[in-house]
Design goal:
By secondary structure, the protein is an alpha+beta fold. The protein is built from twelve helices and 18 strands. The chain has helices at residues 14-17, 20-26, 56-64, 78-86, 95-98, 104-113, 167-177, 232-249, 283-286, 291-299, 330-337, 370-385; strands spanning 6-10, 29-34, 47-50, 68-71, 121-124, 134-135, 147-151, 161-164, 182-186, 192-200, 206-208, 212-217, 220-226, 253-261, 267-273, 313-320, 342-346, 357-365. The strands form three sheets. Strands 10, 11, 12, 13, 14, 15, 16, 17 and 18 form a nine-stranded antiparallel β-sheet that branches. Strands 6-5-9-7-8 form a five-stranded antiparallel β-sheet, with helices on both faces. Strands 3-2-1-4 form a four-stranded parallel β-sheet, with helices on both faces. Helix 2 (20-26) crosses helix 10 (291-299). The radius of gyration is 21 Å and the shape is globular.
Length: 391
């Protein structure tokens, strides 16, 4: 019998907001820890604790109001939360599953040690008059340019990620970052970027959603094509990666796995998100069980749902801010919603700024080819952006 009826969520953004429908259907109440009254999830929460997500005292209070605690983002302090877990607070996933993933260098090391394919990488030590020091776990080795520089903690939606053309650009970027810990890795000339949403229950049951193609601009996801057109062998590689990772972590909940596909058909893991993920938003409308319901099912020890598509294909386009304003863009949303088989999700954010995720729209397709899906995405973006650029 399921005894988890109240779930605490650390974070009150759109990922928590999109759990609302699933929570109601499952008879689960959500209690939110988030800093601002304007955060999207506040509108439906049974109770809200207004505090930063890394405030462990607030999380201790959250624990008194719920049966289990889930995470909407990774901006947390694991060291401060560990005493709560030792006192019996049920975190889903458990903190030990998050520990190797929150720092991107630690994540790379963990994946490599599992035998999963990753780009070459080094952690950059502090720099000074002697220049940049490089360290890899297998000894020192260079990363040729162009390369990718990533802030090791708290980078998202392209923030903290830099494409570096040469050594001089590296030094300049590092100086601009101060002494923020960073990771340098090889630039992968990928053919496509892919992603898969994977879920695991506390009993070890697994559910994998169809692999999708994600298309980024300025390191921010612009659109998702569902499903990705792939050789079955590539799909098999990705499914094996997901099983290996989630079973190794003894994960409970939904994880987003981002990948590169090279022109030779090789798959490399890009990043892991230990939570629901933007690449899975299509599941709200295109799947029998959304990623948000699946996450709550895993957290609450309910049987996992069916991750299959209930349509032939779909395309999801992020509605990103392209200006600084306070605007609900109602006319544009109405125009998007009038398209056939279109589903618009607006996150209710009060402020727009370039690159900010304000909502998304998913269109269900009947047997569309990739080029036809691309054409639908172009139509959606022409309505939303017009002739503007996101950045």
């Amino acid at each position: 019998m399921n005894n988890i009826k109240r779930v605490g969520v650390i974070g009150g953004g759109q990922l928590a907001w999109m759990m609302a429908g699933a929570a109601k259907a499952l008879g689960v109440e959500l209690v939110i820890q988030t800093p601002h009254a304007t955060d999207p999830a506040v509108a439906f929460a049974a109770f809200t604790i207004f505090a930063p997500v890394d405030d462990s005292a607030a999380t201790a209070e959250l624990a008194t109001r719920c049966d289990a605690i889930a995470f909407e983002n990774e901006f947390i302090n694991l060291v401060a939360l560990m005493p709560l877990q030792e006192q019996g607070v049920l975190f889903r996933p458990r903190l030990e599953a998050l520990a190797p993933l929150l720092d991107k260098y630690d994540q790379r090391c963990y994946l490599r040690d599992l035998g999963l394919p990753v780009p070459k990488f080094v952690a950059l030590e502090e720099w000074g008059s002697g220049g940049v020091g490089e360290r890899g776990s297998g000894g020192e080795y260079p990363i040729s340019f162009p390369a990718v520089l990533k802030v090791r903690r708290h980078g998202y939606d392209g923030q903290g990620t830099f494409i570096i053309k040469d050594r001089e650009a590296l030094e300049a970027t590092l100086q601009g970052l101060g002494h923020t810990p960073v990771l340098l890795e090889e630039f992968i000339p990928f053919e496509r970027e892919l992603a898969v949403i994977a879920a695991r229950s506390s009993a070890g049951e697994m559910a994998l959603y169809p692999v999708v193609e994600t298309q980024q601009e300025e390191q921010v996801c612009r659109r998702v094509l569902v499903p990705a057109e792939l050789d079955p062998a590539v799909t098999g590689q990705i499914e094996a990666i997901a099983h290996t990772l989630l079973n190794s972590l003894q994960a409970v909940g939904v994880f987003g796995i981002e990948l590169f596909l090279t022109p030779t058909g090789k798959v490399l893991v890009n990043e892991i998100a230990p939570r629901t993920h933007n690449s899975g938003h299509f599941t709200l409308d295109a799947s029998y069980t959304s990623q948000f319901e699946q996450h709550l099912r895993a957290v609450c020890d309910l049987p996992l749902g069916n991750p299959a598509l209930k349509c032939d294909a779909a395309v999801m386009v992020n509605l990103l801010g392209y200006e600084y304003s306070h605007n609900d863009y109602l006319a544009k949303r109405q125009q998007l919603a009038q398209l056939p088989n279109s589903h618009v999700h607006w996150y209710g954010k009060s402020e727009s700024r370039p690159g900010r995720k304000l909502g998304h729209v998913t269109v269900l397709l009947d047997g569309a080819t990739k080029s036809e899906a691309q054409a639908v995405a172009q139509t959606l973006e022409s309505i939303w952006y017009g002739s503007r650029s996101v950045r």
